[in-house]
Every structure is written in structure tokens, then in C-alpha cells.
Amino acid sequence: MSVDDLLDTALTHVSTIYGLYVTQRQNVVNYYLAGIALLSVAYAAAIDKRHAPVAVAVCALGVLASAAARLHHQRHRALEGIAEQALGELQAQLAKRIRESPDTVHLESLEIQAAIGRSRASSRGEGLGAVYVVVAVVFVLGAIYAAVTY
Q: Which residues of 50-60 are buried (b: 16+ CB within 10 A; e: fewer)?
């Protein structure tokens, strides 16, 4: 197997793994948002009917869902970081090979991960992690409201 074939195989492998992690994290966000919407409706109905124990239980589920989503987010953010580092290194190797090859077109923008790393103002995903915490706090406040009011 030639070095070019190994580089191509490695790029394909790392890109696939990275895409898997990103897709999994996005799926969790989508299901989380749908679940929180349903829990919010259930909470509103329980409050409307003055069923404080049900409202508190719904809030507990909201807190648990937020905690699970946050843990999943942190784990996948770490895994994505590992895959991004490998992808960046492979892109740098590919860009170097193309620059050194006399019979290929020179592309300035092959080192995509490096450009992304330079353009980030803050760490990737921090805002999403904060959303999980804020939603959990809102559910805790909702439980306190239900317990105190009814």
C-alpha cells in the first residue's frame, strides 16, 4: 500500500469518526429539545390542574434529562477534540504533499481544522453546555414554585 493510499485511508477513517461524533451530539440536542418541550407542556398542565406532586416529578425529570445531556455533551466534546486534532494533522500532511508535488494544483485552504482553530473566539460548544445548566435551574425553580404555591 502506498503512502498516498495510507493517507487517504486515514483521512477517510478520521473524517468518518468525527462525523459520527458530531451526528451523535446533534441527535442528543434534537431529542433533548423535544423532550424538554414535552416536559414543559406536562409541567404547565400539572400547574394548571394544581397537581404539585406531578409538577415536581416533571421538574425532576427535566433536571435528570439536562444532567444526562450535559454529561453526554462533555464526553462527545472531548472525543470530537481528539478527532479534530487527528484530522488537523492529516490535513496538514495532505497540504504539505500537495505543495511539494510539481504536478498538482496548489490549494491554499486544505488545512481546514487549523483555520477553524484560529477563528474560534471561545471553546466549541460552551454555549450549549450552559443551556443544559440553565434549563436544569429553571426546572429546579419550577419545582420550588409548585411545592410552595400548591
A: eebebbbbbbe
